[in-house]
Amino acid sequence: MASFLGDRFNDAFVYSSNLHREQLWKGTSVPYVSHLMSVCALVLEHGGNEDEAIAALLPDAVEDQGGSARLVEIRERFGDVVADIMSGCSDTDEIPKPPWRTRKERYIGELAGHPLNVMLVSLADKLHNTRATLADYRAIGPEVWMRFNADAADQLWYCEALAVVFREHLPGTLAEEFERVCANCWRATTPVVCRIELDHLRPARTRTP
User: Fold this and answer.
1) Fewest C-beta atoms under 10 Å: which of 19, 59, 79, 209?
2) Where are the domains of the chain?
3) Overall fold of domain 7-201
4) pTM, whole model, 2 decimals?
5) Which residues of the chain have pLDDT under 50?
6) Is 167 helix (H, G, I), strand (E, B) or coil?
């Protein structure tokens, strides 16, 4: 039976666009809303319902657009299911945000305990992020890592840790695709990561008199 999207979805689409209209994809001139539309499309293409599709339009609203106050507003406007998915997809509602590694370790530790609707939206979000990072790496090289709050080694660690959770708790084509993209990202960037790590290990050069 076909599943149709209603007025709530239309409202969420406009709400999300207004919320992020002045935001750009990190390090690019691409409107950030393109990412949200892609995440939503992935959710719908893999069986997501209207609540999950709405949450897919708003995965970063709590972290980047108002914290806990934004979550309260979204709960009132779009309901508990959407708000709960968003809460599960956010690694913090604190302003300012805690350190990157602390947030990501906590997120990975909690992800496996979330319901499948959170897993689906999170997986779609992380898949599109990683696809875009890999594509940009192939286009401009290691410079792409300067866009983020963590270096290449940490980003690759996070990707692999997420892939393990998704493979175990939401197996299927979407998780398999994420694992393939992570593997390709690792193969493309490993020489650079290794070179950076070796540079850190080498003793500082001294001038000869």
Assistant:
1) 209
2) 7-201
3) Hypothetical protein af1432 (1.10.3210)
4) 0.86
5) 1-2, 193-209
6) helix
